[in-house]
Prior knowledge:
Elements: H1 17-31, H2 43-52, H3 58-71, H4 75-80, H5 83-90, H6 97-112, H7 121-125, H8 132-143, H9 152-161, H10 171-183, H11 190-203, H12 222-225, E1 242-253, E2 256-261, E3 272-273, E4 276-278, H13 285-296, E5 300-314, E6 317-330, E7 340-344, H14 356-366
Parallel strand pairs: 1-6
Antiparallel strand pairs: 1-2, 1-4, 2-3, 2-7, 5-6
Amino acid sequence: MTVNRSDSSPNDPRAWRSWLASRLLPWFHRHRRDLPWRDNRDPYRIWVSEVMLQQTQVATVIPYFERFLRTFPTVADLAAAEEQAILRLWEGLGYYRRARDLHRAARVLAADHGGRVPDDPDVLASLPGLGRYTCNAILSQAFERRLPILEANSQRMLSRLFGRTEDPRQGPARRWLWQAAEDILPQKNVGTFNQAIMELGALVCTPTAPRCDGCPLAERCLARQSGQQESIPARAAPPEIVSVREIAVVLRRRDEVFLARRPQGGRWAGLWEFPKGPIDEGETHEKAIERLLHERTTMRARSGAELLTIRHAVTRYRVVLTCYDAEYLDGDFASDFYVEGRWLSPKSLVDYPVSSPQRRLATHLLAPNPEPRLF
């Protein structure tokens, strides 16, 4: 049950504004992590970091962010880059649509705004991939715009602070939280305040086992007062796990291997891969290789040895990818699925953006003598 409050009650978020700033800002200055995107208030750096941090842990993002900024230090550099170069640098970070949207938005800014990220909510909101949270994060941190933010860490912290038991991802609860996030904003130091909320959620008000003893807001936290800090906010039931069996084929012709590029829509859009697909129920690997190559490349091959098995997860799917060697026999590449195919020397595989499982396969092939008869 949600803790009730009226707009005039002491639990109205507007009544907490001064107190929250007086507690959160000193705590943040003492405990904030030293993160590379906090070095300065360059809006481009903030933008790149916020995009990378979507559904990705900070520790994972840091090396990607540093490499990305070394390669594309400005909006103009990013706009001038080829998409394949960007995807190669993004490889392993996942959710590749983020990289393509970042690239498209950079091109708009380079063409129409002098390669700058402007202090203009309307312009930012019109760019590919920038929703309300990302726009407000950039504008508040880079330009001190008095705009709220709401993401996983802050919505969890605010739900507990104000005793909101509803699922924060649902409409009414989410609208309430957005309004609360706006009501509590101080008149100055807005960007720092927004970062402090997220940092408290990441370091103290964690999804499980929140460290209430180290929280600067513990004395007024309504979830803690009612003993509900572990159960607030409400969590949706986890999705059912689906097991998937797939096969990948390293098709070789003399000293070359065949790589194909996926279509622009769907998972791993635009990335390259050794031809792969699902294994039908009861199908042998020889039949699966023959069928897969026929359906997706129109080429024929003689199946060879198993190279390795890769287990990985994609959202709710648990995938077992078995990888096989195959020797090209005949046929020209044609496909209703892949948009392009190339015969490559194995050493050039490093230049092509592929998914993480496919990179593991490529790395295996380039290891010293993984299978003597391959190359």
